[in-house]
From TrEMBL, chain A:
One of its GO terms (biological process) is transmembrane transport. This is Peptide ABC transporter permease. It comes from [Actinomadura] parvosata subsp. kistnae. Gene3D superfamilies: MetI-like. It is a multi-pass membrane protein. One of its GO terms (cellular component) is plasma membrane.
Automatic annotation (TrEMBL), chain B:
InterPro entries: AAA+_ATPase, ABC_transp_ATP-bind, ABC_transporter-like_ATP-bd, ABC_transporter-like_CS, Oligopep_ABC_C, P-loop_NTPase. GO terms for molecular function: ATP binding; ATP hydrolysis activity. It comes from [Actinomadura] parvosata subsp. kistnae. GO terms for biological process: peptide transport; transmembrane transport. Belongs to the ABC transporter superfamily. Keywords: ATP-binding, Nucleotide-binding, Transport. This is Glutathione ABC transporter ATP-binding protein. PANTHER family: D,D-DIPEPTIDE TRANSPORT ATP-BINDING PROTEIN DDPF-RELATED, TRANSPORT ATP-BINDING PROTEIN.
Length: 310, 515
């Protein structure tokens, strides 16, 4: 088990390094010029020569030394300074992270609840039309663009029904619509995989054997079928995290919320490379960590993998 | 009064009738065997008794009198009070009949919990009792283990423990041993017998093998195409079967056949295996699956490798067919070329006719594939060859356009044999090629193999765990145990004068002959 954990952790570190390097190189190759964007404003009254001096001030000794310096910084927890605002990137991340963490975790929980309800209801309903209708819901959910759903929800709940204020309102009120916007598309793949896994488990020969013990439908579904169907679903749930991060950019922009998504949007507009690099590496780190957690959880949930993991 | 009386039971699948008015009765403490081929409706009848039909099946008519009640009219909710407590089920396939993510102990204790026991200590004590009762050593450890950590025979014991936990008055045993090795099969049947004697439980034994039913049941019910064709006390039905179908089942049951041993013709060897060794790495220590195996097979004869699962017989077969490389030792096959053309000379037929055919190809394409691979003949010539091969394995020519799922198990195995013959090989390696088939189909395939051997002069290496089948087809036998050959000789020698204890044990496990 320890060996398994160590090798998975090693792989995770390697993925993180690769993500860092790839995004570093890509951001360097980007045709934009953050210094020009910030200092070309005529009101600042800077001459081209002064801009060139500023550029020289920011530039390092050589590209490779630059890379090494930045990598070392990341390893020690210093992500450099934002070109746009001049504040340390760490501070900007620290400001934005809790907001997004709240939004994303609430959305993920809601997505899981929606997925479980859809999948259970579909497998429990005996009428085939109802089952078909329920199983087509995820396809609908996955095809809804997040920005459109967000605008639609604001239209209906804030402007028409006036249930949720657009500006102001309590913390919970502010969170309801963004969470819903983010949760709906993420629930779709989870629901699809869970529903299919439940069907596959129901086809296993051990299910009638449990029924022959006198177990009720709910007993079979909850204690055996769901328990077995969790395994493939967990993998997909781990992978939806990427969508969660991408979705929060759109959601935070549509609802005007502060957070990593908004930070990303601002950084892209300002070509603020250090912030962008930090955001990418942070997203990769969260992604890698969550999937590492999934890998560790797997042998605990499926005893058949213990031998393989040991 | 009878324990169970079934009157005129009718079941249909998607509106198509499958069971047409079956009646049978079981007295307290009695074993009644329901015998028939697959598709005879025997399993459907058994499952209908406790209301566990697949979702596309419906119980159309009939009465199921169990004690005072008529279960036929009961709702699922009411049936739950009977299932597990008064009627237990021992299922067919021990490999997949336990939930893989729950411990064995939890799955036995489940019956008690479902029927209202809440006291954890009581459940635990009863589970340990039951595990000991069904003959599993070290119940404490077993209870904590997961199904994948147990062998097939042990899993079947666990399933029996769950079935008897509440001392039901009737156990439905649906092909309880058909997926098990012969020696294990015998021990499981003995266990069911013991429990019946001890608890006075009646058993409804569903099986396709008259050999199994013969020694174990008081009365026989023979089913064909959803109808009962013959019934009566087991001894009298076996002694004087009235129906042609029963006679055929009797003839086909390998354990019951009294055919003379085939003569060994002698001649040059086609396969020579010398000191074959195969090691696998399990974790850090090497494991010898095959440990110094040597044998010879005379051209045009059948040599059988017999043993239980894990004896190394399949690994040996794979090395002979060059699907695995020996760690050391040699296999030489007379006249076999090297490289890819080796496959024209030696072909393999697998156990599972359901898994070995590509479901997306037509039967014609499947049989033609080796011809295309070796570039034999042009299109019309290949078509003609496919038609010829289908005829050889006694399948109608129209089947060429069908797909595997439209065929029965026996038909599929014929297709697999036709495909193996397409490249005109001289050696066929048959890996448990008839083990997944019903006795009647099994007998037909064995007859086909014999005819093909005569007509084409083929040499067979026949891998099987079933000595009764081996006795029918092979000229010489090697008995394998734990990677070694413990006894080898002509079939006559090995069967009439076994030298090794293990061979004797295997022979004793063949359901006893009644004629």
């Amino acid at each position: 088990m320890t060996r398994y954990l160590l090798s998975r952790a090693g792989q995770a570190a390697l993925v993180l390094w690769a993500a860092f390097t790839a995004s570093y190189v890509l951001l360097q190759l980007l045709p934009g010029d953050s210094i020009l964007i910030k200092f070309q404003n005529p009101e600042l009254g800077l001459s081209p020569q002064q801009i060139a001096e500023i550029r020289a001030y920011y530039a390092g000794a050589s590209p490779l030394a630059d890379y090494a310096h930045t990598l070392l910084g990341f390893l020690t927890g210093s992500f450099g300074y934002s070109i746009d605002t001049g504040t340390p990137v760490v501070e900007r991340l620290a400001e934005a992270l809790p907001e997004t963490a709240r939004l994303a975790s609430a959305a993920f929980l809601l997505a899981v609840v929606i997925a479980v309800v859809i999948a259970f209801a579909a497998s429990y309903s005996s009428a085939s039309w109802l089952r078909g209708a329920l199983l087509s819901v995820p396809s609908l959910f996955i095809s809804v663009p997040a920005f459109w759903l967000g605008i639609l929800l604001i239209q209906i709940f804030s402007f028409r029904l006036r249930l949720v204020p657009v500006i102001g309102g309590s913390e919970v009120q502010q969170l309801v619509l963004p969470v819903l916007t983010l949760a709906v598309p993420i629930s779709a793949p989870i629901a699809q995989v869970l529903a299919r896994a439940i069907d596959q488990v129901y086809a296993q020969p051990f299910v009638p054997v449990i029924a022959a013990k006198g177990a009720s439908r709910w007993w079979i579904l909850w204690r055996h079928v769901a328990r077995n169907a969790v395994l493939p679903t967990l993998t997909v749930a781990g992978l939806t995290l990427g969508e969660l991060i991408a979705g929060s950019v759109v959601t935070e922009t549509v609802f005007g919320r502060a957070g990593i998504g908004r930070l990303t949007e601002q950084a892209v507009n300002a070509q603020d490379t250090p912030v962008m690099l930090a955001v990418v590496v942070l997203a990769a780190a969260v992604f890698v960590l969550v999937n590492l957690l999934v890998d560790v959880l797997f042998p605990i949930l499926d005893p058949r993998l213990k031998g393989a993991a040991a | 009064m009878s324990l169970l009386e079934v009157h005129d039971l009718k079941v249909s699948y998607d509106g198509r009738p499958a069971v047409h008015g079956v009646s049978l009765s079981v007295e307290p403490g009695e074993v009644v065997a329901v015998v028939g081929e697959s598709g005879s409706g025997k399993s459907t009848t058994a499952h209908a008794l406790i209301g566990l039909l697949p979702s596309n099946a419906t119980l159309d008519a009939g009465r199921i009198l169990f004690g005072e009640a008529d279960l036929a009219g009961w709702s699922q909710r009411r049936l739950r009070s009977v299932r597990g407590s008064r009627i237990g089920l021992v299922p067919q396939d021990p490999a997949n009949s336990l939930d893989p993510v729950k411990t064995v102990g939890a799955q036995i204790g489940e019956v008690l919990r479902v029927h209202g026991e809440r006291d954890r200590r009581k459940i635990r004590a009863r589970v340990l009792d039951l595990l000991a009762r069904v003959g599993l050593p070290d119940p404490e450890t077993r209870a904590r283990q997961y199904p994948h950590e147990l062998s097939g025979g042990m899993r079947q014991r666990v399933l029996i423990a769950a079935a008897i936990a509440l001392r039901p008055s009737l156990i439905i045993a649906d092909e309880p041993t058909s997926a098990l090795d012969v020696t294990v099969q015998r021990r499981i049947l003995d266990l069911i017998d013991d429990l019946r004697a001890e608890y006075g439980t009646a058993v409804l034994l569903v099986t396709h093998d008259l050999g199994v039913a013969a020694g174990r049941s008081d009365r026989l019910v023979v089913m064909k195409d959803g109808r009962v064709v013959e019934r009566g006390p087991t001894s009298s039905v076996l002694a004087a079967p009235q129906e042609g179908y029963t006679k055929r089942l009797l003839d086909d049951a390998p354990a019951l056949s009294a055919r003379p041993f085939p003569d060994h013709p002698g001649g040059p060897p086609a396969i020579v295996v010398r000191d074959l060794v195969k090691e696998f790495r399990v974790g850090r220590r090497p494991f010898r699956a095959v440990d110094g195996v040597s044998f010879e097979v005379t051209r045009g004869t059948t040599h059988a490798l017999v043993g239980e699962s894990g004896s190394g017989k399949t690994t040996t077969a794979r090395m002979v067919a060059r699907f695995a490389t020996p760690t050391s030792g040699t296999v030489s096959i007379a006249g076999a070329p090297d490289g890819r053309r080796f496959r024209r000379h030696v072909q393999l037929v697998y156990q599972n006719p359901y898994g070995s055919l590509d479901p997306r190809q037509t039967i014609g394409e499947i049989i033609e594939e080796p011809l295309r691979n070796f570039g034999l003949g042009d299109r019309p010539a290949r078509r003609a060859r496919v038609a010829d091969l289908l005829e050889r394995v006694a399948l109608p020519g129209e089947l060429a356009a069908r797909r595997p799922r439209e065929l029965s198990g026996g038909q599929r195995q014929r297709v697999a044999i036709a495909r193996a013959l397409a490249a005109e090989p001289e050696v066929l390696v048959l890996d448990e090629a008839v083990s997944a088939l019903d006795v009647t189909v099994q007998a037909q395939i064995l007859a086909l193999l014999e005819r093909l051997q005569r007509e084409l002069g083929l040499t067979y290496l026949f891998i099987s765990h079933d000595l009764a089948v081996v006795r029918q087809i092979s000229h010489t036998v090697s008995v394998m145990s734990k990677g070694r050959i413990v006894e080898t000789g002509t079939t006559r020698q090995v069967f009439s004068d076994p030298r090794h204890d293990y061979t004797r044990e295997l022979l004793a496990a063949i359901p006893e002959r009644v004629r």
